[in-house]
Amino acid sequence: MKHLKLIIFVFIFVLLLQTIFAQKNTTINKTAIINKPIDYKQNQGIASPESILAESQRNFDRSLTTLNIVVTGMGVLVTLIAILVTIAIGLGFFQYSKWSKIRKQAEKNLREIQEIRNRAENEVNESIKKIKDISIEKVSKEDIGQIKHRVEELEILGIEAPARFFIRGVDYYKKGNYELSLKAFEKAIELDPKDNTLWVNKGVILFKLNKPEEALKAFEKAIELDPKDPNVWFNISCYYSIKNKKEEALLNLKKAIELDSKHKDDAKKDEDFKFLWKDEDFKKLVS
Fold first, then answer.
1. What confidence category does residue 143 fall into, taking pLDDT thresholds of 50, 70 and 90?
2. What is the distance between the alpha carbons of residues 210 and 27, in angstroms, rounded to a whole number?
3. Residue 33, pLDDT above cutoff 50
4. What's the rounded Cα separation, in Å, for the pair 212 and 249?
5. Cβ proximity of 240 and 258 under 8 Å
6. How many alpha carbons fall within 13 Å on the CB side of residue 119?
7. In angstroms, rounded to a whole number, what is the distance separating the alpha carbons of residues 8 and 64?
8. Alpha-carbon span 203 to 194, nearest angstrom
9. Could you tell me how far CA 286 lies from the centroid of its own chain?
């Protein structure tokens, strides 16, 4: 826009110079009458009709010459503006085409990155499903190691998924750092409060931290979300056994065994049931 204004200013300036020059140097050679100087009557000082006509013709020719210059200049100016507009439109189309290609490539790259993110997250979630049915205390270090590197990939991709905090919580638990393990599971629950497995593991960690009442609340929340999860009933049974409440302990243990018979052997080995090991009703239930 600045360049266009400058061009217009220079053109008008040159046009004015040409007009002034034309007014000083125009010569008319059409007829002898036109070129004849003004003749004043010697005594009266009055111009003759021929002189007046000649002077009028000169003035008319000057005006016509000036008008022709202005019209010609305006035509040139319009042509220049048309050329500039055409160039601007051409450059604009080129820039639009260029940025359109860049935008399409960026959108393609974004889709590819999203596909990688989704694939990595799905792989981690599938791996975690295989160990979610196992008690947090029985998850092996090998199980954690197999999917830990996948979780690191999620962190690199900036995915804040419950899966990464689940693995982190289990890893801390295996190292005996129960406080950090609890924080990891609480973060996972914050992201996915409807995952009952997260609540179960939170309850187990609270047991380790000698907070059985809070643990029971976590188990009850897990039961609310999935009443068919045998691990929850088993852990609730552990809670009542520690509290020396035989009836409640056996009732919940029976429910866990009905859902998964493997808890018979678990109860025989888990020291939380040490209070019941010699009890006949307990022996009958786990036999």
1. low
2. 118
3. no
4. 14
5. no
6. 6
7. 24
8. 15
9. 55
Over the chain, what HEC string results?
Answer: CHHHHHHHHHHHHHHHHHHHHHHHHCCCCCCHHHHCCCCECCCCCCECHHHHHHHHHHHHHHHHHHHHHHHHHHHHHHHHHHHHHHHHHHHHHHHHHHHHHHHHHHHHHHHHHHHHHHHHHHHHHHHHHHHHCCCCCCCCHHHHHHHHHHHHHHHHCCCCCHHHHHHHHHHHHHCCCHHHHHHHHHHHHHHCCCCHHHHHHHHHHHHHCCCHHHHHHHHHHHHHHCCCCHHHHHHHHHHHHHCCCHHHHHHHHHHHHHHCCCHHHHHHHCHHHHHHCCCHHHHHHHC
Domain borders along the chain are 1-79
Facing residues of 47 across strands?
Answer: 40
State both tokens at 219.
């188990």
For residue 41 the two structure tokens come to 């009557």
Query: What is the reported pTM?
Result: 0.55
175-193, pLDDT tens digit by residue? 899 999 999 999 989 988 9
Is the pLDDT at 252 greater than 90? The verdict is: yes
pLDDT tens-digit series, residues 83-136: 777 776 766 666 666 777 777 777 777 787 777 767 766 766 666 666 565 667
The single residue listed with the structure tokens 């600045």 is 2
d(CA 67, CA 69): 5
CB 234 within 8 A of CB 219: no
- What angle (nearest 5°) sits at the alpha carbon of residue 218, between those of residues 215 and 219? 90
The CA-atom distances, in angstroms, between 105 and each of 101, 109, 110, 116 are 6, 6, 9, 17
